[in-house]
Design brief:
Blueprint (H helix, E strand, L loop, with lengths): L11 H6 L14 H9 L22 H11 L7 H14 L3 E4 L2 H11 L7 E5 L4 H9 L3 E5 L10 H13 L6 E5 L8 H10 L3 E5 L7 E2 L2 E2 L6 E5 L12 E4 L3 H11 L22 H11 L2 H18 L6 E3 L6 E2 L5 E5 L9 H10 L5 E2 L15 E2 L3 H8 E4 L7 H20 L1
Parallel strand pairs: 2-3, 2-4, 3-14, 4-5, 5-8
Antiparallel strand pairs: 1-9, 6-7, 6-11, 8-9, 10-12, 12-15, 13-15
Helix pairs in contact: 3-10, 4-10, 5-6, 5-9, 12-14
Length: 427
């Protein structure tokens, strides 16, 4: 619990450093109007010199009310009415049963267990992703086989996927599962990937951690895999402070995940275990935040898509700066707006030039994910490459994309980028 302090000290930075449920005791709060304003609209309490974050939490209207319900009823454990309600709301939104868990990484781990992945197996994994997609493969003692991206969505290349499977089969190693990702909220080429998985009868895991609110040919992200995974980390389009979900059209697999996530405890009066389980369930407090966040998801998607439109319009005059466009049938939630900076077309300006210029003005931005096949921890992993993800990593930059960004903040971001590009073009 943070030390007691004036409410005026709780800046937007504080809420990024501490989970939302680390609130001062309710009885110590005397100015609820100010308190609610800070929680719900942190950027309104900031000044122009404060840091502009890449993607900060953005509370809605009802999260604190749900949290109070949990405190008042003393339901603060990894079980309770908010967990059940949150899972029900997710199922109605995505269209398949859901289990609320502690993180997206935990969801991938549980999905691999459900797929039957064991020590010595191989799992094909999209290389261009966050390590939470691939690390659980190692948890199981298996080996990731990395597959590169295609340039249209930056996600797994279906042609290269099949080439990798054929080659692994020639080597006597049939992959046990495939994990593909909707990077930065952009849906992958799901039908083509599904066709390959079905052709070779391989379990398909959809990592939709970054893509809640996105759709592929009218189908929600999170409903496209044999098992799918969502993340509600603090920087995602909605947050539960920390958390995730496992989803599947097969209710039995969701029930299996719930069982494993509660230490694989058998239904007995005493603690009985016939297999190893995990402490992966979401708490009732985190689920209470999630309930309020789901109520504003559609608005958050609209706000993030508006960020993308703003940046694209403001940078349209520079030939060396490009954006990731949507293919027909691909609806992105635009979790993060990303750009590619081609030095040959941008007057020798690099991604790093822009990143450092933004950093000097206290604006957080980041390079795109470093592909997993380039990470030292995966030096020995097989890989099937075409150069796409390495080029994106070299030229790609994630711009501030929070749904709570003010127009003034976005203009400051654009002003800093203009300063770099114009200075070079004039030089």
């Amino acid at each position: 619990m943070p030390p007691k302090r004036s409410l005026h000290a709780f800046s937007s930075t504080f809420w990024l450093m501490y989970p939302v449920f680390f609130l001062p005791p309710f009885k110590t709060i005397t100015n609820f109007d100010l308190f609610f304003e800070i929680i719900r609209f942190p950027t309104r309490m900031s000044n122009p010199s404060e840091k502009i974050w890449l993607s900060s939490p953005h509370m809605g209207a009802n999260e604190l009310d749900y949290i109070k319900e949990a405190f008042d009823s003393n339901w603060i454990a990894p079980v309770g009415p908010h967990v059940n309600a949150f899972e029900g709301a997710l199922q109605r939104l995505v269209g398949v049963p859901a289990a609320a868990i502690s993180s997206g990484t935990a969801g991938v781990h549980l999905a691999l267990i459900i797929a039957g992945v064991e020590r010595g197996d191989e799992v094909i994994c999209q290389s261009f992703t966050f390590c939470g997609t691939s690390n659980p493969i190692l948890y199981q003692g298996a080996m990731p086989v990395f597959v590169d991206s295609e340039p249209d969505t930056w996600n797994m290349n279906p042609v290269l996927l099949e080439e990798a499977i054929v080659d692994r089969l020639k080597k006597g190693k049939k992959p046990k599962a495939i994990i593909y990702v909707h990077l930065y909220g952009m849906p992958a080429k799901g039908d083509e990937i599904r066709q390959v998985a079905d052709k070779y009868n391989i379990f398909l895991i959809e990592d939709a951690a970054e893509a809640l609110g996105a759709t592929y040919k009218g189908r929600p992200a999170g409903s496209l895999g044999d098992v799918s995974v969502l993340s509600f980390n603090g920087n995602k389009i909605i947050t539960t402070s920390g958390g995730g979900a496992l989803l599947s059209p097969q209710k039995k697999w969701v029930e299996k995940a719930t069982y494993l996530a509660t230490q694989a405890r058998q239904p007995a009066a005493h603690y009985e275990h016939t297999e190893v389980g995990y402490n992966y369930r979401m708490s009732n407090i985190c689920a209470s935040i999630g309930r309020g966040q789901l109520e504003v998801l559609e608005e958050r998607v609209q706000q993030r898509r508006a960020n993308y439109d703003f940046y694209k319009e403001e940078l349209s005059g520079y030939g060396g700066v490009s954006f990731l466009s949507e293919l027909p049938g691909h609806f992105s939630n635009r979790w993060l707006t990303t750009i590619l900076v081609n030095p040959e077309k941008a007057g020798k300006v690099t991604r790093e030039d822009i990143r450092l210029a933004l950093e000097k003005q206290n604006i957080e931005c980041r390079p795109t994910w470093k592909p997993m096949h380039m990470q030292p921890v995966y030096n020995e992993a097989p890989k099937y490459l075409n150069g796409v993800s390495e080029r994106i990593f070299k030229e790609g930059l994630c711009l501030p994309s929070g749904s709570n960004l003010s127009l003034q903040q976005k203009q400051k971001v654009i002003g800093a980028i203009h300063g770099v590009l114009k200075q070079t073009s004039n030089g």
